[in-house]
Design goal:
Keywords: Coiled coil. Residues 104-247, 501-563, 603-714 form a coiled coil. Residues 39-52, 775-788, 864-878 have a biased composition (Polar residues). 81% of the residues lie in helices and 1% in strands. The protein is mainly alpha-helical. It has a domain at 336-392 and 689-917. Strands 1-2 form a two-stranded antiparallel sheet. α5 packs antiparallel against α9, α6 runs antiparallel to α12 (723-786) and α9 packs parallel to α11 (609-715).
Length: 918
Amino acid sequence: MSEDDDRAAKAARAKALLDKRRRKKVAGSGALASPPPSRSFTPALQESAPSTEDTKNDVADLFTPADSDANWIESLSRVDVPRSTASNDLPPYAPASSFLSGQADALQSQVTSLQTTVASVQSENSSLRSSLSRLEALGTDAKAQLKKLEEENSTLKLQLHQEQQRAQDTSRRVEVVVQEKQLLEDVHRSSQAEILRLKSQADELRRSHAKELDDHSRIANLHKEEAERLSNQLSAARVEIQDCHSKEVESTKRRNEQDENHQKTISLLVSEKTSLLASVARLEELEMETQEKGELLHAEREKSQSLDERVKDLESSSSKLNMQLQEALVRERDLAEKSRDQERELQLLNASLEEVRSTSEQHRQRVRELEEQIESDDRAERLEESLKNTQDRAEELEFQLSKLKQACSHLSLHPLKDELQSQLQLRNDSETEWKAKHANLEEQHLSLQECVHSANQDRDALLEERSSLQSQVNFNQGAIKQLQQKLGEVASELSSSDRALQNAHSDLRVANRRAEEAERTQKDLQTEGTRLMQSLDEMRPKFVELTSTKMDLMERIDKLEHEKNSRDTFISKLENALGEAMEREAEADRVHKEADSMYEKDKVSLQQSIIELQQGYAELQAELESSQAAVLSLEGDRTQLRQIEARQLEIIDRLSAESDQHSQVMSRLESDLRSYRNLDEEHRAFIERSNYEHEALRTELNAKDDEIEHLRTSSSDEAAPRSLDDEMVGAHRVQHAMDLSNANSQIRALETAVFEAQAKSHSLQKQIGILEDQLAQQRSTSRATSRPFSPGVPVRPSSRTFNPTDLRRGSFSHRSSNLAPPSPRTVFDVGLSPETRHKRQVSLGMLKARIDSEVAASAGGYPSSRQLSPVPQGNEGTSGREPDSPSWHSQHIHRRPQFMDESHIFWCHSCDGELVIL
C-alpha cells in the first residue's frame, strides 16, 4: 500500500473517531449538539450573482455539471466531512471504557467489518485525491482568469483616471456619475463591513484550522491506540452520521431561505437603482434646460441693451423735433403778427387810394397833357430801356437767388442723407455682429454635443466598471456565503450573523430614507422646473415685443428640442438595454443558484482561495478610498453648480423687471409720438390757413393793382396846364410807387417766411415718416416673432420706400376741396400735384389779364403809366420772367415733356404762384 493510501486510511480513521465522539456527545447532552437557531427572514445585504459575461470562465466552472465529473461523483457514497471543533469538545474516556467492557464479545465481528469499511474508505480516498488533483488544475485556471481580471481592472483604473481628468472640464454633467458613485459607495461600505467581518471570521478559521491540524497530528499519533475503540463506536458513528445528514438537510433549508432573502434584497436594490437613475436623468435634463435658458437670457439682455440705446436715440430725436416744433410755432406767431400788420397797412392803402381817386378826378386833364408831352419826348424811350435793363437784372438776380435756395435745400438734405447712411451702417454692423454671435452659438452647441457624447461614453465606461466591480463583489459575497455556511454551527458566529442582519436592516432603512429624500428632492426640482417654465412663458411675449431676432433663437430652440427628443430616445434605448442586462443578471442569479447546489458539495477545497480573496479585498478597499475621494470632489462641484443655478435665477428676475421697464418706456414713447403727430397736424392746418389767407390777400392786391392801373389810364386822359399840378401828381405817383414796392417787399418777406415754414413742415413730415417706418418695422418684427407659427396673419410691411413727393402731396391734398374746381388738364398738368396746378392756373389767369390790359393800352396808343415808376412793382418780376408773346408758350409746350416729373419743378417764394423749371 502506497503512502497516499496510508494517509487516506489515517484520515478515514480520524474522521470515524471524530464521528464517534460527536455521537457520544449527542447521546450525553442534546443541548450541546442542538442545531443553530434559524436566522431571521429579514432581507440581508446585497449578494447578487456574478454576471455570466464576466465570470463565465471563473471559479463557477468548477461546479458546472460535466460528463467527466458527474459519473464518479454519483458512484460514490455520501460521506459528510465533520467540522473542526475545539479541544474541549472531546468526550471523556470513561464512558468509552465502560462501553467497551460491556460489549467485549461483539468487538471481533465489528473489527472485521471495520477493516472492510477502512478498505472501502481508502479506495474512496484515492478517488477523492484524483478529483482533488483535477480541482487543483481547475483552480490554477481560475487563478489565471483572476489575474486577467485584475489586469483588466488596472486598465479600467487607468481609463477611469483619464475620464476623471476629462470630467474636470465637464463637471456640470457629472451628477449622474455622482449618484452612481453614491450607490457604489453604499454598496462598498456594506461590502467593506462584510469584508472586515469576514477577515475576523477568516482569522478564526485560521486558528480553527491550526487547531484542526494539531488535532489531526495528535489523532494520528493516537490512531493505533484508538483502533480498538473504533470497532465499538462504529455503530454509534453510523447513527451519528444519520443525525448529521438530517442536520445538514435542515442547514440546507436554512441556507435556501437565506438565499431567498438575499434575492429579495437584490430585487429591492435593483428597483431603487432604476428609480435613482431615472431621477438623475431628469435632473440632468433640468440642468441642460437651465443652461439653455441662461444662454437665452444672456442674448435677451444684449438685445435689451441695444433696444435701450435705440430708445435713447429716439428720445434725443424726439427732443430735437420738439425744439424744431417750438421754433416753428414762434415763427408762425411772428408771421401771424406780420399778416395783421399787413392788413392794417392794406386798410391805410385803401384810404390813400380813395384820396388818390379824388385827386385823380381833379387832375385828369393835366395828366393827359403830361402824357402827350411824354410821348413826344425822347427821354421816355430811354427810361423804358433803363427800366427793361433793371427788370432783366432783377430777373437774373432772382434766378441766382432761386439757385442759391435750391443749393441750400440740397445742403439741408445732405445731413439727412448722411444720417440715414450712418443708421444703415449701424444696422449692417449689428447684423454682422448678430451673425458672428449666431456662429459662436452654433460652435458652442457643437461643443456641447461633443461634451454630452463624451459624458455618455464616460457613463457607459463607468457602468461597465460598476458591473465588473459588482461581479467581483458578488463573487466575493459568494465566497463569504460559503464561509458563513461553514461557520454556521458555531454559536458565536450565529450571534455575529444576527448583529450583521440588524446592521443590514439599519442600512436598508437608511437606503429607504435616502430613496425617499431623493424622491422628495426630485419632486421639488420638478415643481421648481415647472415654475421656471411658467415664469419663462410669461416673460417670452415681452421679450418677443422687444426683439427682432427671436425667430432665429426659436428655430435654434426647435433644433435643440429635436436633439433633446433624440437624446431621450437614446436614453430610453439605454434603459431598455439596462432592463435586458437586469434580465440577464436574473438569469445569471438562477444559474448561480444551480451552481451553489453543486458548490456546497466541495466546500473544503476552496479554503486555499481565502488568502487570495483577502488580497483582492485589500485592493478593493484601496480602490474604494480613491473612489470616495473622487466622490467628495464631485460633491464640491455639485454645490458650485447649485450656486450657479441660484445666481441664474436672480438674473432671470432682474431681467423680467428690466423688460417691464422697457415696455413702460415704449408705451410712453408711443404716446409722445401720437402727441407729436397731433401737433404736426395742427401746424399743417395753420400753415394751410395762412396760405389760403395769403392767396386771398394776393388776389385782393392784384385787384387793387388793376384798379390803380385803370385809374392811371383814366387819369391820363385828363390834362391840366399847370406845372405845379404835374409836380404834385409826379410826387404822388412816386410815393404811391414806393408804398406799393414796400408792400410787395413785405408780402415777399411773408412769402419767404411761409415757404421756410413749409420747408420745415416738410422736413418734419419726413422725420415723422422715418419714425413711423421704424416703429412699423419694430411692430412687424414683434408680431412676426410673437406668432412664428401662423403665417396666414397679415403683417404690416417692415419698411416702405420714402418719397418726399408723397409727403408733400399728403400735406396739401386735402386743401383742394376748399378751392375752385380745376380746369381740364393740359399737357403741362400730367405730373403735377393739385396745389401746383391751382397756383399755376391763378398765375396764368393773372398773366392773361395783364397781357389783355397791356394790349388794350397799346391799342389805345398810350403807354403804361407803370413804366414811369423808378422802383419795380410787385408783379414786375413775374412779368420779366414771363414772356409777353404767346410764341414762348408754344416753345415751352414742346420742351415741357422732358421735365414732367416733380423732381425738376420748384417753387419760387418771390413769385406770384409761378413755377421755375430747371
